[in-house]
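hiii, so i know i said id send this last week but things got crazy w the move. better late than never?? heres the sequnce for the chain we talked about at the cafe, plus the structure i predicted for it. fair warning i was half asleep when i ran it
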Amino acid sequence: MARTEPGFSAPALHARLAPLAEGRRLWIAYSGGLDSSVLLHAAASLRGQLCCDLRAIHLDHGLHPQSPDWAAHCRAVCAELQVPLIECRLALRRNRGESLEAVARAERYRTFAGQLAPGDLLATAQHRDDQAETLLLALLRGSGVHGLAAMPVVAALGPGRLIRPLLWFSRAELDAYARRQSLRWIDDPSNADIGFDRNLLRQRVLPLLRLRWPAVDQTLARSAAHCAEAAELLDGLADTHLLGLAGSRPGTLSVDALRALSLAERRLVLRRWLARAGFRPPSSDNLRRIVDEVLPAAADRAPLVAWAGCEVRRYRQDLFALAPLPPKPSGDPIPWEGLAPLPLPHGLGRLELDTGASGPRGLQVCFRQPGLRCRVGDGPSRALKQVFQQAAIPGWLRTYVPLVLVDGQLGAVAGVAICDGRLAGLRWSGHPWQDLALLQS
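okay and structure toks below
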């Protein structure tokens, strides 16, 4: 990454921000540390030139007893600079096997994305040294070219974009600016904890590398840029393949079409498909399982490969990527008069019945009851399993489909079949699978 001038200064930042931020709302991710303090101060000095609506956002991770003092420091600095500040406290929940660093990072960007309006920019303060650390971490984790591309200068984030205008500058250059401007900043003691991988690289590994290769930060940043170019080309190739791989449901892939690709192409396409759907990338082992276990499975099987936030499932010849299924509803019937919408448990949406005053009353709603049968119109009576099969409802979804009983008999399979004509006005909305067109309502 070539710099337009030596060192860091407000004019140097202007050269990086102006093409992106002019006339927009620009958020600064402000932790109170050195790097973000420099970014906020320099951006505030450029407000008139950028003609942007400058704001700051501070996240309290709740991991340190001094975090309230840090928030107070950020409020004071923003008041002094006349920059509006929003504060958010994170609720970190770490599942078994997840690193605290990864959980905090995911929650951080989720919170940032939730604050952005369409067209907004969020500027973070990662610099060239951070880029070198990110590339080394990716190498140590065995990442592919997308991981080795490290941090892009511009990336999508919710309805807006994430920008990193300091990637051209070293931490030493930012430190020199902070001291010239007499800035005040917070030193987070956790940055000294070499139990965190990034801190170990920063404090022990990279200083040693710089003794032998003084330009190692620039060199690693250049390598990351080369990988970013390669990743962009691979994404374009995968997108071209995806045009011909659509399954029968929105967002799904055709198993047969995938199996016609080479192994390398399958892996490439699956990674891109999952990334475009917003899921965390699968590990090498999970990707192998999708290719080796899910794709060749018999059409009547229900294979599953799951990792944090994602479940890859198959039904017939369609491959699905879904958020984890909610807890299974209990078998206890839910009484419903049918006059007002009925909220369903576990975020399964709501039922509504548009029949007027003459509709049936004293209804019950349940889930997956054995022995129920349904007759649609003048057709034959069919077992519930046959109703689901004819409507091509995946087996893993059937437990979550509401069944409406009239006088103890099956009156409707929500979104699938109406067994009692008096329930013709039944609608099931707001459920997690609406966009997949798995159900008719």
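btw Residues 239 and 272 are 8 Å apart (CA to CA). thought thatd interest u
miss u guys!!
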